């Protein structure tokens, strides 16, 4: 196990969340599962999503997620952004803005093309502002529109 591992407290959706996450992100897996009885529902699990190890627990309605913590997905290009965004939307996720989307389990994700990070790394503050301004108008990030804003500044 990693020294520091995010621990996610679900109401009672741990098993469904793990099934969705591991099906959506290649290389994901469930490492350990625990149930309260032989045929009982999943209570806790250690799982890997996109190379990140998580612990999860069905803690009941006492816990909820907020946008104060989100999962950042580094996407190589627009096609990868579209793949993850579309999978989340099809699962019932709600777009927020600026590339953020909240899945049906309450976890907020940032689906970010690597090109965005490259563009905002420019030393010209006017170009950076133009890219940020364009991003603020978007739900799903659009690489072509971000590049157009960058080029037009």
Structure write-up:
This protein has 153 residues and is α/β, with parallel strands linked by helices. The chain has 2 domains: 61 residues, 2,3-Dihydroxybiphenyl 1,2-Dioxygenase, domain 1, CATH 3.10.180; 89 residues, 2,3-Dihydroxybiphenyl 1,2-Dioxygenase, domain 1 (Roll). The protein is built from 5 helices and 8 strands, in the order E-H-E-E-E-E-H-E-E-E-H-H-H. A 4-stranded mixed beta sheet has the order 1-4-3-2, covered by helices on one side. Strands 5-8-7-6 form a 4-stranded mixed beta sheet. The longest helix has 13 residues. The mean pLDDT is 96.
Determine the CATH topology of the largest domain. Answer: 2,3-Dihydroxybiphenyl 1,2-Dioxygenase, domain 1
- The number of distinct helices, counting runs of at least 4 residues, comes to 5
Residue share in helix? 25-40%
The biggest sheet, with number of strands, parallel, antiparallel or mixed sense and barrel status, is:
4 strands, mixed
For the largest sheet, list the strands in their spatial order: 1-4-3-2
Tally the beta strands. Answer: 8
**Run of helices and strands:** EHEEEEHEEEHHH
Number of domains: 2
Strand percentage lies at: 25-35%
What is the CATH architecture assignment of the largest domain?
A: Roll
Give the rounded overall mean pLDDT: 96
Which blocks of ≥5 consecutive residues have pLDDT under 50?
none
